[in-house]
Each structure stands twice: as structure tokens, then as C-alpha cells.
Amino acid sequence: MNKELKTVLKAFCLELPVYAAVVALYLWVITHYLGDWLARLFHDHRVLYAVVALAVIFAQGGLLEITTRALLPATKARTKK
Amino acid sequence: MDFAISHTHIDPVWLVLLGFIVGVFGGVFGVGGSFLAGPVLFGFGLPMNFVVGTDLAHIVGKSIVAARKHGLLGNVDLKLAGIMVTGTIAGVEGGAQVIQILKKSAHLDWVVGGCFMFILVGMAAFMAWECRKTMQMSRAARNAPAGSRRRHDFSAFRHLAARIQALDLPPHVSLPVSGIKRISVWSIVIVSLVGGFFSGFLGGGAGYIRMPSMIYLLGVPTHVAVGTDLFEIIISAGYGTLSHALKGNVDILIALVMHTGGAIGAQMGATLTQYLAGVWIRMAFVPLPLIGAGIILHGLLRGHAL
Fold first, then answer.
1. Which residues between 50 and 79 in chain A have a beta carbon less than 8 angstroms from any beta carbon of chain B?
2. Within a 10 A sphere around the Cβ of A59, how many other Cβ atoms?
3. What is the mean pLDDT of residues A34-52?
4. Which residues of B touch A58 (CB under 8 A)?
5. Among B63, B238, B264, whose Cβ lies nearest the Cβ of A68?
6. Rounded to an integer, what distance in angstroms lies between the CA atom of residue B94 and that of residue B110?
7. B111 touches chain A (CB under 8 A)
8. Is the pLDDT of residue B196 over 90?
9. Which residues contact B245 (CB under 8 A, 6 or more apart)?
10. Strand, coil or helix: B9
11. How far apart, in whole angstroms, are the C-alpha atoms of residue A63 and residue B264?
């Protein structure tokens, strides 16, 4: 296994627990504050629900992309030390 | 945890783990992983109509992360993706209409499940044969420096892709990112139309159809096929999500939970492609359709809806 790949894998091992902690908190916030509202929207306003569903998954996609992008270089730098 | 939209109770840890595994597959192979995610979600107790719609929603989010990563690596051919979107969306609608017709009969599960198994087993067998043939032909490629492996991607079906590229059916287009000097737009549209049809008919993003088609029929290098397919899935699965959400088939909370695992998995998978030659990516893909076929067969024989 080459050196660079080893560094990347080590960085991932460091990134995972940090990411898991962030995600656990994030999911708690989402389900607590959005869960009931989304369920009401699903049952009462289907068109709005469809638009909101697409919007939130896009928004979460962008947010998590920024988060994972920020985490990997930080953990890579730590493993190189 | 209770999900009020679909009236199911699923442990979110399993959803995140499922999302992670499917995310890694997506990042490495450029497929959405619906041939695993769908059956597993069904096994978790999610009704099948929610499985199809929710999986599509989750794929949209996951593909954004992986596609951006592949974009930074230079693996996304935007021109190719733009042309493919038109065929894919038309194909998705066609596949969905066939499902509506089959719903009126009592054989929907077996027809869809049987088609799915046939395609998955056939795909795995074909790719295994092609990879073996390629490795026999390209020993020199394995000895090439690591940086050159990405662009000099050998395939045993170069001659077929060359014939399709030589088709004189205007309009033509050049795809510099894919290294294709000239190809008929109709070749691209037909490939994406077929892929879109399977997406609408079998659910998921149908990357397992589109990605091999891009490699073997259009001659797109494997790494570019992976990245471009992921980018194209964002648009086609986005359309599918909207459509299914309007029909009441999307539990967006389940999709959001799965996606948190998928986001980190997709990033890992996309990074790992840098260290794998194209033929090894294709070889590693071979068992996956077989696992999906096994899960479907198990579900059909046990009496679970597909």
C-alpha cells in the first residue's frame, strides 16, 4: 500500500468519529424541529411538500459537502504530524 | 425511531450505516447503489412505494457530494451530462408509464423482479468477462506510472466504442474531457434513454446500466464515466424525487438520515478512485449486481413485494 494512500486512510479513520458526533447532533436538531412539520406538510400540502423535500435534500447535500470537505484536510494535516 | 410520513419504525443508526456503504459504492463506482439500498430498506419494513421514492431522494443528496469531488478530479464531462439528461428524463417517464400499466395486473412484482434479476446477473457476467479479457490484453497498463493510469484506460470493447463513435448520424459533438473527438448526439441520447427507462421501470438511478453503457458503447474512460454518471444522477433523480413526492412516495426524513452516512461514504469512495486503475474498478463492481439479484430473489420467494 503506498504512503499517500496510508495517509488518506488514516485521515478517514480520524474523520469518522468527528463526523459521527457532528451528524448525531445535527440529526437530533432535524428530527426535533422539522419532523412534525414535514409530516403535516406531507398530509396536508403535497405540492409544497414535494418542493420542500427536494430543496432540503439539495441543501443538506451542499451542507454536508462543505462539512466533509473541511474535515478531510484538517484530519490529513493531523495524521501527517 | 418513528418516521411519521411512512408510518415505520427504523433504527437511525442502521439507516446511516446503509447510507455510508451505499455512499462508498457511489463514490467508487458511480452508481447510486439502489440495487442494495432498495431491498435493504424494504427489509427494514419500509413499504415498497416509499422505498422507490425515498431511495431516489437520498441518491440526489449523496450524488452532490461525490459528483463535486469527481468534478475537482476532472472526472465530470458536463457537455456529455447535459446531452444525457434529455434522454434520461424522457426514459424515466417511459419506464414509469410501463409500471402504471403493470400495476393493473397481478404480476407487477414478478415481472419487475424478474427483469431486475436478469439484468443484474447479465451485467455482472458481462463485466467479469470483459475485465478478464482486458487484464489479459493490457499487462503493460498495470506497469505504467500511477499518474498515467487514469487517462490510459483500456477496455476489451474499444473496437465497439470506436464503431459507434464512427457512426455518421448528425449532429455530432466533440467531448474533450472524455477524449472523444467526434460522436453522434443520437448515440448519447439513445444510451441515456435506455438508462432512464430502467430508472423509471426498476427504480433508483440505473447507474448500473448507464455507467457500463458509457464505458463500453460510447468509449468514455472509466473515471470520467463514474464522475459524469454521478453528476447526471443529480438531475434525473431530482426529477424522479419531485415526481414521487407528488405521488406520496417519499419519506424525506429517512432520506435525510441515510444521506448523512452517504455524504461521508461518497467522499471516501471518490477519493479512493484515484488509487485504482479503471479495470480494477470494473472488476470490484462485478459482485454487487449479484448481491442485489440475490436479495430480490429472496424477497420474491418469501412473498415480499419488490
1. 50-54, 56-58, 60-62, 64-65, 67-69, 72
2. 14
3. 92
4. 60-61, 64, 238
5. B264
6. 19
7. no
8. no
9. A46, A49, A50, A53, A54, B53, B57, B252
10. strand
11. 12
pLDDT bin (cut points 50, 70, 90) of residue B255 is: very high
The string of pLDDT tens digits covering residues B197-217 is: 887 777 666 777 787 788 888
CB contacts of A51 in chain B (<8 Å) are 242
Q: How far is CA B159 from CA B49, B207, B217, in A?
A: 42, 23, 9
Entry pTM: 0.75
Neighbouring residues of A27: CB distance < 8 A, sequence distance ≥ 6? B12, B256, B257, B260
Q: Note the pLDDT of residue B155.
A: 54
Q: With beta carbons under 8 A apart, name residues in chain B contacting A53.
A: 57, 241, 245, 250, 252, 255
8 Å CB contact of B263 and A30: no
| pLDDT tens by residue, B145-156 | 555 444 445 555
| pLDDT tens profile B232-241 | 888 888 888 8
Write out residues 247-306 of B within 8 Å (CB-CB) of A: 248, 250, 252-253, 255-257, 259-261, 263-264, 267-268, 271-272, 275
Q: Name every residue whose Cβ is closer than 8 Å to that of residue A7 and which is 6 or more positions away in sequence.
A: A76, A79, A80
Asked if A54 lies within 8 A of B264 by C-beta distance, the reply is no
SS (H, E, C) B176-211: HHHCEEEEEHHHHHHHHHHHHHHHHHHCCCCHHHHH
The mean per-residue pLDDT over the stretch B176-195 comes to 90
Question: Which residue in chain A has the smallest CA separation from B63?
Answer: A61
C-alpha B231: how far from its chain's center?
Answer: 11
Nearest-neighbour CA in chain A from B148: distance (Å): 16
CB contact set of A40 (below 8 Å; sequence gap of 6+): none
Residue in this structure with the C-alpha cell 475537482, named with its chain if needed: B72
Residue B292 burial (10 A CB sphere; 0-12, 13-18, 19+):
buried
